[in-house]
């Protein structure tokens, strides 16, 4: 390899004329990392014709390929997330359904009766937990309502139980916390906030449905629970949209 310390004109010319693959190959030839090559080019103050306008404007221009080459590839987006479980404690219950909804897109749904274990061993929710975690880890910012107290700790407990790897570095927004800090209303529950802000009506929670799903394995009950789950994420997305101006920081998940 032609390892060189000087930022010669040949390197600069080939960098400016090449595409992403050419730049990677060029760095390999010079025995340097891709980031080092970018620094070599940005440190040089004599623009070649293809770079002249960028230097004059002081712009930092990077292609999508170059950006993704410097860090793990994740979707830099917001998703709403909501669980429906047979009880409120991870060691006394299983996940029935879950919804992960990328902002402005169709929801991604999970239901326990889609997994083989549901028929004979309903207490084994490893399959659905694994799939929920696998999808969730693809996204950057997770929005929940009271999720910092329930949905996320519940999911973490189940992930540890099933020997699954922890979620990566992500960020979390809890619309309940935003409402508590900024909105003086009678209740910060999603149902009340959605009604007060005219976001839509949240379906009522009927205990019998959860009993029928968890203990009887009723597909009809699961249909209604999943519908309720999707509706919650739709309302949560709208609530998040009007709550963001009051968000002072985004904590780590």
Features:
single chain, about 250 residues, alpha/beta, Nucleotidyltransferase, domain 5, 2 domains, 5-stranded mixed beta sheet, 12 helices, about 15% strand, globular, disordered N terminus
Figure out the total of helices: 12
Query: Spatial order of the strands in the main sheet?
Result: 3-2-1-4-5
The end-to-end span amounts to 43 Å
- The unreliable regions are 1-5, 45-60
Question: How many strand elements?
Answer: 5
Strand content: 5-15%
Topology order in helix (H) and strand (E) letters? HHHHHEEEHHEHEHHHH
Please report the first level of CATH classification, the CATH class of the largest domain.
Answer: Alpha Beta
Provide the helix percentage: 40-55%
CATH superfamily of the largest domain: Ribonuclease H-like superfamily/Ribonuclease H
What profile does the largest beta sheet have?
Answer: 5 strands, mixed
- The chain-level mean pLDDT equals 85
Please give the domain count: 2
Provide the gyration radius in Å.
Answer: 25 Å
CATH architect. name of the largest domain:
2-Layer Sandwich
**Overall geometric form:** globular
* CATH third-level topology of the largest domain: Nucleotidyltransferase, domain 5
Q: Assign the structural class, choosing from mainly alpha, mainly beta, alpha/beta, alpha+beta, or little secondary structure.
A: alpha/beta
